[in-house]
Amino acid sequence: LANYIENLFHKIDDKVLSNIAKEKGNYLQGLANYLELKDDREYFDIVDNYTKEEIKKVYQFLVLKALQELKDINYNITPEIIGVYISNIVDIIFENKEDISVLDLASGSGNILISLSEQISKKSKFTSVDVDYNYAKLQQNIFNLLEKEINIINQDALKDINVAKQDVVISDIPYGYYADEENSLNYKLCSQEGYSLNALLFLEQATSYIKDNGVAVLVMPKEIMNIDEQIKKFLEKDINLNAFIMLPENMFKNKDNQKVIVLATKKNQSILPKQVFLAEIPSYQNKSAYLNFLDEIKKWIEAK
Question: Is pLDDT of 1 > 70?
Answer without folding.
Answer: no
